[in-house]
Amino acid sequence: MAAERLTIRQPDDWHVHLRDGAMLAAVVSDTARQFARAIVMPNLRPPITTVAAARAYRERIQAALPDGCTFTPLLTAYLTDTIAPAEIAAGFAGGVFTACKLYPAHATTNSAAGVSDPAAIAPVLETMERIGMPLLIHGEVTEASIDIFDREAVFIERHLQPLLQRHPALKVVLEHITTTDAVDFVRSAPANLAATITPHHLHINRNAMFSGGLRPDFYCLPVAKRELHRLALRAAAVSGDPRFFLGTDSAPHGRAAKETACGCAGIFNAPWALESYVQVFDQENALDRFEAFASVFGPRFYGLPLNEGTITLEREPQLIPAQLHRNDAAGRAIELVPFHAGETLPWRLATPLLRGVAAG
Length: 360
Ligand code: DOR
Ligand code: ZN
Known about the structure:
Blueprint: E1 5-9, E2 13-16, H1 21-32, E3 37-40, H2 51-64, E4 72-78, H3 85-93, E5 97-102, H4 122-131, E6 135-137, H5 151-166, E7 172-174, H6 180-188, E8 193-197, H7 199-203, H8 227-237, E9 244-246, H9 255-258, H10 273-283, H11 290-302, E10 310-319, E11 324-327, E12 333-336, E13 344-349
Parallel strand pairs: 2-3, 3-4, 4-5, 5-6, 6-7, 7-8, 8-9
Antiparallel strand pairs: 1-10, 10-13, 11-12
Helix pairs in contact: 3-4
The structure holds (4S)-2,6-dioxohexahydropyrimidine-4-carboxylic acid and zinc ion.
């Protein structure tokens, strides 16, 4: 008989957008009730480019958490064309920066100050390589002439491959991979290249954005690709290969910012992230490999200790609400549409890490 309960070591989220201000207060518990640690993305306004800004952001995250919560945010530096290697090295040595994030300029939300050419920041990458600091990459080219569905594959060929050749010892995570090209490239590369996989890219293909009308809630970057790519991502996630691990890329935008003439990219999957992932492992008959993907391969790659505690998921259907109503500190409403809105998910987190904080 299929397992009814699954207990695993406490997982971590190796890629999340916690935002700032009112949105931070509205969403941080979704992540903290499931994950012991999370790699927090630095694409704020303004982006996190200094140790001082990261320290202050970490304090704001901690202040937004419920009392007694042990969640650990792991911060990242936002690479620009002019960021100083010494700033990054100081942040890493001081335990403030865990990694650096490379956004190609104009690739996605708040990436205007990103890197114009990865080859031009060689001194930064050399420093990171020397000190063992991971580089996290949004792997898409941005040229208008390149089809949006090809941007990841072209980035790998034009930028990632040469970058790994120039910096053979650099630890690199290709974030939120979406294609067979990325899966194959990671598989064939040395062990210092890994990749995160989101729940949404495991569940949806590009049809989701257009099914019965235009569906902004399924628009994210990199955009979901063809079905064959989704199937390759599922195979990679459940394969037991340590170079593929969990990173939700949960990216909340208020409903009004999604449903507008120029809607923001991002899927808010944090509230039921574990349930979303475990369903995929269950469907692929790979529940026995879920713990490694969610709780082991990430920390091993980052050189961090595994979490000690456990969490338990149980097979119990739950209906995901069509939207979530959250309040900011001043009582103003924030409306968010969660991933899987209106669906019934077959699994439920039975032992949330924050007592008294329900999902949704
Ligand atoms: O869909 C996305 N949303 N992709 C990104 O790369 C950024 C993120 C965001 O910050 O909204
Ligand atoms: Zn992201």
